[in-house]
């Protein structure tokens, strides 16, 4: 990649590590670096050493920054590469031989699939796709919350009510859960009952297991409906319960290594100099904890997949948990060469504080997604005149509404840095204007409609095309196309799919300007027409490749 190549060149010439960036404004060059300022080098001397490289047309110093202008043939060559590599363009094998485990989605049995789990699913899936695109062996693992004291509460309620298990829905389960909490406020002894039931479950009690299994099935049915709507399928679903028989060994190892000690009956983990607050590893009645299960999960993953990276896409409210977890792994000395990463997501807020769901105060994600689809179908109905929108009826239309609605929800989630709180505002999400999923899908459909109208015409870069004779709008578009691969790499390394959103949004805007200002099918010469069609094709391809990585579909017509 060019950026890396230039960084290496600078290092070769100066002995200093440089960071090369892409300026926002191409009049400042195609790449630039602040290495001279940072390393107190004479910028002109650096330029003199690099001048001979065949990469550059010119190198200019502006305010101490070194700005590189590439030879134009690179832009034209890149365009040809897009035409050739199509959906593979932007992929690479830099991850070859490396393995990443991505822990994402992880909803909890007998509780609603929440907005936080939606964020985790969408962001986690995009990161999964990115790593795969760069050649990593990628393993998705849905760490379902299907074990823990909360099941004691549920089993207690179901036992005392003698409800018919098969007739229950997730909503019933939630209700029971809420009821339990209300009752336990009046009568705290119920908590002991619940604890006793969880203990029975952990000891393999038949009745308890039966109830737990039934709850799990009820929830999984609902989760599957949501995954289907989202078009997400996670490689592994090893819930917390999978680690039932694997925790004792870990607990023993923690004791043997002196990493846990008893305090008022419970087993706790303390950190040297109290760098982190202490935590409970095992409760006084012998019940296991979320933390212990996570330790067992890591042990299992290390052995099974030998990963280089284990990344967790989980809400910011669990930051402390993951700090403690990673620190404990360090103390255990299990994985010196493995990188552990907590990819935090912020909260999702609704514009007016609350989500418009027709049901009570818990957010029912399925309704939110259905609403997205129904709003998308209104959007298609109100399609603007003079648009690449084909008239579609029936099944095609429903499918399209789903692609747009779900894509819009995903884009809203991905277009800002994952750690930020985001606002859920239907007017922005389902909108053909602005930085939205539908805007990008629309831009893609526009490229396809131009190409369709051009049928019979070649899409090609003739040797008669001279970069210097192109108009500014074409030059800019061509230059922007060069940066897709870098963006992909950067987005992957920093777990930031939002970089892809920013990039394709910017590209789509440039394309729309080109579409409005530059005649494509009515170009003066045959070569010009072929070239503009090639640009159109390339922009469409890049938007599509970007959206695909984000887990968003690109319908040909809207
Ligand atoms: N089920 C958990 C929750 O909803 C998230 C699990 C995240 N993954 C993990 N390995 N701890 O809060």
Layout of strands and helices, then pairs:
Layout: H1 2-14, E1 20-21, E2 31-33, H2 35-38, H3 43-50, E3 56-62, E4 65-70, H4 73-85, E5 99-103, H5 115-133, E6 137-141, H6 149-161, H7 170-186, H8 189-202, H9 206-230, H10 247-256, E7 261-263, E8 266-269, E9 279-282, H11 290-305, E10 309-315, H12 319-332, E11 339-345, E12 348-350, H13 365-381, H14 394-414, E13 422-424, H15 426-429, H16 437-453, H17 472-481, H18 484-493, H19 498-517, H20 526-550
Parallel strand pairs: 5-6, 5-10, 10-11, 12-13
Antiparallel strand pairs: 1-2, 2-4, 3-4, 7-8, 8-9
The site of arginine has 9 residues, from helix 11 and strand 10.
Report what the structure shows.
About 1% of the residues have low confidence. The protein is 52% helix and 11% strand. Helix 4 packs across helix 20. A 4-stranded antiparallel beta sheet has the order 1-2-4-3. The protein has a 4-stranded parallel beta sheet with strand order 6-5-10-11, with helices on both faces. A 3-stranded antiparallel beta sheet has the order 7-8-9. Among the domains are: 69 residues, Gyrase A, domain 2 (2-Layer Sandwich), CATH 3.30.1360.70; 250 residues, 3-Layer(aba) Sandwich (Rossmann fold), CATH 3.40.50. It is built from 20 helices and 13 strands. It is α/β, with parallel strands linked by helices and 558 residues long. It binds arginine. The site of arginine (ARG) has 9 residues, from helix 11 and strand 10.
């Amino acid at each position: 990649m060019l950026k890396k190549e230039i960084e290496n060149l600078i290092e070769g010439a100066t002995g200093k590590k440089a960071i090369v960036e892409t300026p926002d404004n191409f009049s400042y060059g195609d790449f630039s670096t602040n290495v001279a300022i940072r390393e107190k080098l004479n910028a002109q001397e650096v330029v003199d050493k690099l001048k001979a490289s065949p990469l550059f047309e010119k190198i200019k110093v502006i305010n101490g920054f070194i700005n590189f202008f590439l030879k134009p043939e690179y832009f034209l060559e890149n365009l040809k590469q897009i035409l050739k590599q199509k959906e593979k363009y932007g992929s690479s094998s830099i991850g070859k031989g490396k393995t990443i485990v991505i822990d994402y989605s992880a909803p909890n049995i007998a509780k609603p699939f929440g907005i936080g789990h939606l964020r985790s699913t969408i962001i986690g899936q995009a990161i999964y796709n990115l790593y795969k695109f760069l050649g990593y062996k990628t393993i998705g693992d849905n760490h379902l919350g299907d074990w823990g004291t909360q099941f004691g509460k549920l089993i207690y309620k179901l036992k005392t009510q003698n409800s018919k298990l098969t007739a229950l829905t997730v909503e019933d389960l939630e209700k029971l859960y809420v009821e339990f909490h209300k009752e336990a406020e009046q009568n705290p002894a119920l908590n002991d009952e619940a604890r006793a039931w969880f203990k029975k479950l952990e000891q393999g009690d038949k009745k308890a297991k039966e109830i737990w299994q039934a709850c799990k099935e009820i929830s999984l049915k609902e989760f599957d409906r949501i995954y289907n709507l989202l078009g997400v399928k996670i490689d592994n679903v090893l819930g917390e319960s999978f680690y039932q028989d694997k925790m004792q060994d870990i607990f023993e190892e923690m004791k043997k290594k002196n990493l846990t000690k008893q305090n008022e009956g419970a087993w706790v983990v303390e950190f040297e100099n109290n760098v982190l607050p202490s935590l409970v590893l095992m409760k006084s009645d012998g019940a296991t904890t979320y933390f212990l299960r996570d330790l067992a999960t890591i042990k299992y993953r290390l052995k099974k997949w030998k990963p280089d990276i284990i990344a967790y896409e989980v809400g910011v409210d669990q930051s402390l948990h993951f700090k403690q977890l990673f620190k404990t792994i360090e103390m255990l000395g299990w994985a010196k060469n493995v990188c552990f990463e907590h990819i935090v997501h912020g909260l999702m807020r609704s514009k007016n504080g609350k989500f418009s769901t027709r049901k009570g105060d818990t957010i029912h994600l399925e309704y939110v997604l259905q609403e997205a689809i129904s709003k998308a179908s209104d959007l298609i109905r109100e399609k603007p005149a003079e648009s690449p929108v084909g008239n579609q009826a029936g099944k095609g239309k429903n499918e399209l509404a789903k692609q747009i609605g779900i894509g819009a929800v995903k884009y809203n989630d991905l277009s800002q840095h994952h750690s930020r709180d985001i606002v859920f505002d239907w007017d922005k999400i389902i909108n053909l204007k602005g930085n939205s999923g539908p805007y990008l899908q629309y831009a893609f459909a526009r490229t396809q409609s131009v190409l369709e109208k051009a049928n019979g015409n070649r899409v090609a870069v003739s040797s008669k095309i001279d970069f210097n004779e192109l108009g500014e709008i074409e030059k800019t578009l061509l230059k922007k196309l060069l940066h897709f691969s870098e963006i992909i790499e950067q987005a992957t390394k920093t777990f930031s799919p939002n970089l892809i959103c920013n990039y394709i949004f910017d590209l789509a805007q440039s394309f729309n300007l080109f579409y409005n200002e530059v005649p494509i099918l009515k170009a003066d010469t045959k070569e010009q027409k072929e070239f503009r069609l090639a640009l159109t094709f390339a922009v469409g391809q890049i938007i599509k490749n970007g959206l695909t990585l984000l887990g968003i579909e690109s319908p040909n017509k809207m």
